[in-house]
Amino acid sequence: MCGIVGLYLKNSALESQLGKLFEPMIIAMTGRGPDSAGFAIYGDEVSEDMIKLTLQHEDEHYPWHDLASLLEETFGTSVSVLHNANAAVLKLAAEEEPVRKVIEEFDSSIRIMSVGRSIEILKEVGLPENIAERFNLAGMKGTHIVGHTRMATESGVTMEGSHPFSTGMDLCLVHNGSLSNHNRLREELEHKGIHFETENDSEVAAGYLTWRLREGASVEEALQGAIEDLDGFFTFTVGTKDGFAVVRDPIACKPAVMAETDDYVAMASEYHALSTLPGIENAKLWEPDPGKVYFWGKG
Questions:
Q1: Is the pTM of this model over 0.90?
Q2: Would you call 253 a catalytic residue per the annotation?
Q3: 2-45+124-297 maps to which CATH number?
């Protein structure tokens, strides 16, 4: 059992309050996931010729500026560094794959949590309240955010097994449920070049989306394919640069509730996670239909 929450702001005047609005939502899911928690927040977008990487390391005092200096020397460009607990957000004008290679060669113990122009993924083992405080979630700004609280079942309690999972540039996935065909799918996807770091079945779902997107599918098409190809029970929320998508398996075994007002669209595994949102008493509320892909965002 896990908890999923998401919030997309339709009213840009609320962007400075995104973290403050979202913090009680993810904390409300503690009962569904006390082992670890994480979130992917979108905002502070860089230009088309730049990338933004979120990195984490076990050492809270890791010398990120040493890495930044190497990247500046290698790519001949300035690198900005924002340090947040044991994480850092780096921005630079370069291509993703060469940067990944430099980071791996510099220190293989650095974990690349996300790459894109807008996304930042932060996650850790522990209670959601503690993780929100650790990364100063309440002070964060942005356009939209998805989060997850995990109760470990099929794999151990580790930061690697916590959600969200990155699925590509500015893309991530959070999952509530379990997949029955993940071992077979893992083997098939590995043959297609998808790399896995954990035994977590949710990472297989993320890897499936990565593969479909590499093959040219849209996010909606990839999720429609997931409905057909993934066996088991699931509710997925997928974050994109422009918004987020929600889909439940054809039986809709795992709970989900949506809320929409003129100011926002929100989703959660349980209604009480939405109860602190402004104007929730007048929101349109519904359960997502089984086997249907929903998407909210720009464009």
A1: yes
A2: no
A3: 3.60.20.10
